[in-house]
């Protein structure tokens, strides 16, 4: 049995999303960029890395 590493997203269009990784990344990305294409202008959201002791890391929507 292996432990899973969870990556959670808070805020914006990815709010509530949870990715499960089988291997802990050596260096998680400090920022994740999400580009939303919906037939109109593209909308870009940036998520910044925060650590959560309970489950791994969390990406929170960057406030502008």
What would the keywords be for this entry?
64 residues, mainly beta, 0% helix, 50% strand
Tell me the strand percentage band.
over 45%
**Total of DSSP H or I helical runs spanning 4+ residues:** 0
Pattern of helices and strands:
EEEEE
The shape, in one word, is elongated
Q: What is the makeup of the main sheet?
A: 5 strands, mixed
Low-pLDDT segments: none
Provide the spatial order of strands within the biggest beta sheet.
Answer: 2-1-5-4-3
Intertermini distance? 42 Å
CA radius of gyration is 13 Å
Q: In total, how many domains does the architecture comprise? A: 1
Structural class: mainly beta
Explain what this protein looks like in three dimensions:
This protein has a 5-stranded mixed beta sheet, with no helix packed on it. The protein is built from no helices and 5 strands. The chain is mainly beta. Strand 1 and strand 2 form a beta hairpin. It has one domain. It starts with a strand and ends with a strand.
Task: Tell me the layout of helices and strands.
Elements: E1 5-10, E2 18-21, E3 31-36, E4 43-52, E5 56-61
Parallel strand pairs: 1-5
Antiparallel strand pairs: 1-2, 3-4, 4-5
């Amino acid at each position: 049995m292996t432990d899973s590493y969870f990556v959670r997203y808070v805020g914006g269009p990815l709010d509530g999303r949870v990715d499960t990784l089988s291997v802990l990344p050596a260096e998680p990305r400090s920022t994740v960029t999400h580009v939303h294409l919906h037939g109109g202008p593209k909308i870009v959201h940036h998520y910044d890395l925060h650590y959560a002791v309970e489950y791994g890391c969390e990406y929170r929507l960057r406030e502008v």
